[in-house]
Amino acid sequence: MIDFYLNGRRQHCSDVTADTSLLELLRTRLGQTGTKEGCASGDCGACTVAIGEPDADGELVYHNANACITPAHQVDGCHLVTVEGLARGERLHPAQAAMVDCHGSQCGFCTPGIVMSLFTLYENQRRRPAPLTQDRLEEALGGNLCRCTGYRPIRDAALKMVDYPQADPEWAEDTRLAGNVAWLRRPRNGEPAAEGHYVAPQDLAALRALKAKRPEARLVAGGTDLWLETTQQLKALDDIIDVRQVAELNAIEETAEGWWIGAAVTLARLTPLLAEPYPAFAHLMHRFASSQIRNRATLGGNIANASPIGDTPPVLLALDARLRLDGPRGTRELPLADFFLDYKRTALAGDEFIAAIFLPRPAEGTNLKVWKLSKRREDDISAVLGAFAWRLEDGVMRDVHLAFGGMAAIPRRAPAAEAALEGRTPDADAFAEARAALAGELTPMSDVRGSADYRRLAAGNLLERLRLMITAGHGRADDADNNNPATKVTLDAYAH
Ligand SMILES: Cc1cc2nc3c(=O)[nH]c(=O)nc-3n(C[C@H](O)[C@H](O)[C@H](O)COP(=O)(O)OP(=O)(O)OC[C@H]3O[C@@H](n4cnc5c(N)ncnc54)[C@H](O)[C@@H]3O)c2cc1C
Ligand code: FES
Ligand code: FES
């Protein structure tokens, strides 16, 4: 049984198969066809909805999500808002009225999704007013593609909607809604939520017990990788354990040495934590997919998925991160570097799961630079990602960690290139040796994102970019901006 509120009305949906997507539930079971299917793979945003969950103060906070790759069972205990839930009779919500007034729609296929991303921005703006900068607009709309209107009118609507007189949906006047939603989420004494072949344990003990009983069941966290198996490969996912509600997997524990980050912590929640110790890592998070994806996707899912082009593993490798694996037979820790064995093969045993990721605090003087190369800036997966950590001690490089994504069957470090730089001044000779070593030790593949030759060249160029940055005096730990205009000039010159 999925028990939730849809546009302010309680819904009970029973007999929903484990692999039903939220989009399918809305369109085929609930007759809510305003939410569209474009790509069914999280790329276009036509299916965007807003999911409301109570915060610590009991207030409903909304985030946008792709209904096509959200498991239907994950709206259990939530308030789901779709495009049908915004207007009040003839009176449009400001997000809709501004789209009409700014001519933000032509064929209209993308429009419901864009309106829902604007609605989420509007709600967040109301809770925490802040200037609507270009960056914020791109962040809010980066996961919504439009083929015919063009983005300027849509951007104009985003800027304009906040000045419209408030016009809340009918459900917003129900003062009991947040409390009612919170009640649906009450602790269930270890009883897993949902039912049958889709279970959502709420604590570690229940997850371990389920893993012991059903080692073959697939784990799902955000579903932003796993769900593509059903929508793109048409595979049945008929036995699922959802880790999203496991309290321990949602904890972030700060210690003197660093942070234990629960595997089910979403990327949206992780990003502010990274801003202070690792600004370059936080910056990367804004280039990770779209807000719809980051709101659902988890750090544990990004690692367990073991893609050679996953964005966080190279950064975590450069920072010497560790994992805590858990399961019915106990807990163990291992360096992330020992986790990836071969293409999509990891050290995880059948009955184990990732419980937490340890992110060490930066040692005094540590620098981190991260560069993601992809064809599009927003909502695209890396062709190559380079993550570089080092210290400068009396002018020589120490503790050099060079890690790459897209350069082998697994995300990995480049020990020979590191050795070429360790203890050396960051000069052209040392980096030329490092680039030569790199070419010999990494074996990228050719695919739609880039040929092996392109990747080899690009990875070598990233090392040269690093040298230019270091010698130009950038790359300090506090240098958050990978797009520093001064450095950009040098790099643009280098690119020609
Ligand atoms: C449109 C789109 C854009 C994307 N862009 C990017 C991008 O820019 N960069 C990038 O790196 N990725 C990207 N991805 C991939 C995906 O969003 C990430 O890999 C994400 O972090 C996966 O997390 P999740 O919680 O959704 O994982 P899920 O899909 O829920 O799970 C992924 C895998 O991990 C397993 N798993 C999940 N949690 C655990 C756990 N605790 N222990 C053990 N196994 C577990 C699952 O069984 C599954 O095999 C994109 C995906 C889409 C659809
Ligand atoms: S249908 Fe394209 S993102 Fe969902
Ligand atoms: S209005 Fe046609 S795709 Fe956007």
From TrEMBL:
It comes from Halomonas beimenensis. The lineage of its organism: Bacteria, Pseudomonadati, Pseudomonadota, Gammaproteobacteria, Oceanospirillales. Residues 477-496 are annotated as: Disordered. InterPro entries: 2Fe-2S-bd, 2Fe-2S-bd_dom_sf, 2Fe-2S_ferredoxin-like_sf, 2Fe-2S_ferredoxin-type, 2Fe2S_fd_BS, Ald_Oxase/xanthine_DH-like, Beta-grasp_dom_sf, CO_DH_flav_C. It comes from the Bacteria. This is Xanthine dehydrogenase iron-sulfur subunit / Xanthine dehydrogenase, FAD binding subunit. The keyword Translocase does not apply. Residues 189-364 form the FAD-binding PCMH-type domain. Keywords: FAD, Flavoprotein, Iron, Metal-binding, Oxidoreductase. The keyword Calcium does not apply. One of its GO terms (molecular function) is iron ion binding. The gene is xdhA. Residues 1-86 form the 2Fe-2S ferredoxin-type domain. CDD domains: fer2. Pfam families: CO_deh_flav_C, FAD_binding_5, Fer2, Fer2_2.
